[in-house]
UniProtKB/TrEMBL annotation:
Keywords attached to this entry: Cell membrane, Disulfide bond, Ion transport, Membrane, Transmembrane, Transmembrane helix, Transport
Protein name according to UniProt: Solute carrier organic anion transporter family member
GO terms under biological process: monoatomic ion transport; sodium-independent organic anion transport
Domain of life: Eukaryota
UniProt subcellular location: Cell membrane
The species this protein was found in: Chelonoidis abingdonii
Length: 680
């Protein structure tokens, strides 16, 4: 009976261990989904956050970089501790911190009150009353007609909303910082836990499955971002019929906070299963040692933690930095991080400003086209490497060729030209000729000089002549009919159309559409998708792993990720945003004075800065790829006296020889087998 009870207890322990491993794998896959879901949603909302808090693109870059700062604050510590801590509970705490950080980012929405965009729209008590934007602007400046204010109900807020336009964006920054801190332990601790307690033949499959689940997160995050960007920020609290703007307007702010609430809830749910998982599991196939492992693992790891020398890391760093292949690859990673992070952070803004695409549509296209194509490219790249059994030299050649091909296609971005928005007094004169000056004095013309228009307002109207005017006042409009989005201004003295007498033209709310830009967009999207596919094909960094000795592989991956984040993920959004700010032609105005977010960009300058930065960084990558290829060819090329005659090899294999020794073909493998450092 005792033997039967013992066998039953072993079987029960085996079933419990297998069940715990399955629970951990499912929970880890969901946590990967949660972090990808939240991160991509936050990226997609950068433009909405910029407009809601009336901040510049460089400040948006700082908010975006705060995630990397938080991640780096604990990444080194988490990687160093490894199995010395209760990994499931640390991951659970990380997911909770992510959830708290997301909810912290939402707080400003409930502290700021309703969003009031700058406008000169008037609400009429009597629908038959025709109001003049020109006269109203004058009366607002002199503030001498109280009856007019009572009649017109000018909707521009009278109070100075200092809180709404000051520093509440710091809540978003701190929330994003906490998200970076919470995300840090998920990958290193989760991957090491799976690797430690699963069979060697199952480990790669488990990790691949988990990463595949994680890839779904960014796609759904961008789709949620597209949905929320199309909703008004104060959805449910404002009559949407009273709005005079649509999602294509640069003053439109979507419900950025709504998606963050969903992301916070998902992160919270991801934390729950980890609290109930054990510190350790028996190795798959070795469940008999469960009790012994559970009792001794903590003390053993504690002893290792106290006695592990720091000099090991210093020695490993010196070896890696002395390896030219790894050093060049490290520089390549840094430049690629810079170009990729800068591209993704401001891609929706670029599409909006360059091609008249709404932010919600741009986010949607990224989620349903670009991300799936990138994922497909990664799988195809791995399949090609496995199918053709590419060695390190073949992988280097494949990676170099694909990147250079993508770079040459990248240069074609500049051919997707788009005209600058024609704004009277800003980019063109009131007669329609190009205006080289962008000063405020150019805003006023003889046709609107008697209107005393407020110079810093932006509530654009499109004239019959295809020119955009900053407000109906600057168009010299003397009357209007309709309300909300349907308001039409008439008798506009500055709108000059052939065949009509001066002053008989009209204007409608919103910027004029640029048809040529809209027609160019499908070609740009096709080019962008092709480049993304080709880049993803050669994006497998396996040759970096092969180029270092086995005992330094994990350390090399950590150094590569650390330098990429510090020197790429952190500074790229900041300097990209700062340079993009330099192309702004018309800044919005905060309620209490000062510049808000940008309303109009010089689209040609924007394109040259944005695409030029990406092209410059990728040009450096091309040079480093070629250098890396040359170094790998020299390092791993078979020596002349060790070349193998393929014909004789084929003959010998037919006679019974099954394989050729790796050490006979590649001198570096022989050095590694002898524990030498020649390969480094």
């Amino acid at each position: 009976p005792s033997q039967i009870a013992h066998r039953n207890s072993e079987a029960e322990a085996q079933r419990s261990s297998l069940q715990n491993m399955r629970i951990f794998l499912g929970a880890l896959a969901f946590s990967f989904f949660a972090k990808g879901f939240s991160g991509s949603y936050m990226k997609s909302m950068s433009t909405q956050i910029e407009r809601r808090f009336e901040i510049s693109s460089s400040v948006v870059g700082i908010i975006d970089g705060s995630f990397e700062i938080g991640n780096l604050m604990v990444m080194i510590l988490v990687s160093y501790l490894g199995s010395k801590v209760h990994r499931p509970k640390v991951i659970a705490a990380g997911c909770l911190i992510m959830s708290f950080g997301t909810f912290l980012s939402v707080m400003p929405h409930f502290l700021m009150g309703r969003y009031n965009y700058e406008r000169i729209q008037l609400t009429e008590e009597n629908s038959s009353t025709s109001l003049s934007a020109c006269i109203i602007s004058f009366l607002l400046q002199i503030s001498s007609s109280e009856s007019c204010f009572q009649k017109c109900k000018y909707v521009f807020p009278t109070g100075c909303e200092k809180v709404a336009s000051s520093y509440l964006w710091i809540f978003v920054l701190m929330g994003n910082l906490l998200c970076g801190i919470g995300e840090a332990p998920i990958m290193p601790l989760g991957m090491s836990y799976v690797d430690d307690f699963s069979k060697e033949e199952n480990s790669a499959f488990y990790i691949g499955t988990i990463r595949s689940c994680g890839m779904v997160g960014p796609t759904l995050g961008f789709l949620l971002g597209s949905f929320c960007a199309n909703l008004w920020v104060d959805v449910g609290m404002v009559d949407l019929e009273s709005l005079t703007i649509n999602p294509k307007d640069t003053r439109w702010v979507g419900a950025w906070w709504l998606g963050l609430v969903i992301c916070g809830a998902v992160s919270f749910l991801a934390s729950l299963p980890f609290w109930f998982l054990p510190y350790s599991l028996p190795k798959e196939g070795d469940e008999k040692n469960l009790n012994k492992l559970s009792e001794s693992s903590w003390e053993k790891n504690k002893l290792n933690f106290l006695t592990q020398p720091v000099t090991k890391s210093v020695s490993g760093s010196s070896k890696l930095l002395g390896n030219p292949v790894f050093l060049v690859y490290l520089l390549l990673t840094i430049l690629q991080y810079n170009s990729m992070v800068g591209l993704i952070t401001f891609e929706t803004k670029f599409m909006e400003q360059q091609f008249n695409v709404s932010v919600s549509r741009a986010i949607f296209l990224i989620g349903v086209i670009l991300l799936p194509i990138t994922i497909l490219g990664m799988f195809l790249g791995g399949f090609i490497i496995k199918k053709f059994k590419l060695h390190i030299t073949g992988m280097a050649k494949f990676g170099c060729a694909t990147f250079i091909a993508a770079y040459l296609l990248n240069l074609l971005y500049f051919t997707c030209d788009c005209e600058v928005l024609q704004v009277a007094g800003l980019t063109v004169s009131y007669s329609g000729f190009k205006n080289n000056g962008t000063t405020s004095s150019a805003d006023v013309n003889h046709c609107n000089s008697d209107c005393s228009c407020v110079l810093n307002q932006w509530d654009p109207v499109c004239g019959d002549n295809g020119i955009t005017y900053m407000t109906a006042c600057f168009a010299g409009c003397k009357s209007s009919i309709g309300t909300g989005k349907n308001m039409v201004f008439h008798n506009c003295s500055c709108v000059q159309v052939e065949g009509l007498e001066s002053g008989n033209s009209s204007a409608v709310l919103g910027q004029c559409q640029r048809e040529s830009c809209t027609k160019t967009f499908p070609y740009f999207l096709a080019l962008l998708s092709t480049c993304a596919l080709i880049l993803a094909l050669g994006g497998t960094p396996t040759y970096m792993i092969i180029s270092v000795s086995p005992d330094l592989k994990s350390f090399a991956v950590g150094i590569d990720a650390l330098c990429g984040r510090i020197l790429g993920g952190l500074p790229a959004p900041i300097y990209f945003g700062a340079l993009i700010d330099q192309t702004c032609l018309k800044w919005g105005t905060k309620r209490c004075g000062g510049s808000g977010s940008c309303r109009v960009y010089d689209t040609k300058a924007f394109r040259n800065v944005y695409l030029g930065l990406i092209a410059g960084l990728r040009a450096g990558c091309c040079f480093l790829y070629i250098t890396l290829f040359i170094l790998i060819i020299k390092r791993f090329r078979p020596a002349s006296n060790e070349l193998i005659d393929l014909k004789s090899t084929e003959v010998s294999s037919r006679k019974g020889s099954t394989s050729v020794s790796k050490n006979e073909t590649f001198p570096c493998a022989k050095a590694l087998a002898a524990n030498e450092e020649t390969c480094l």
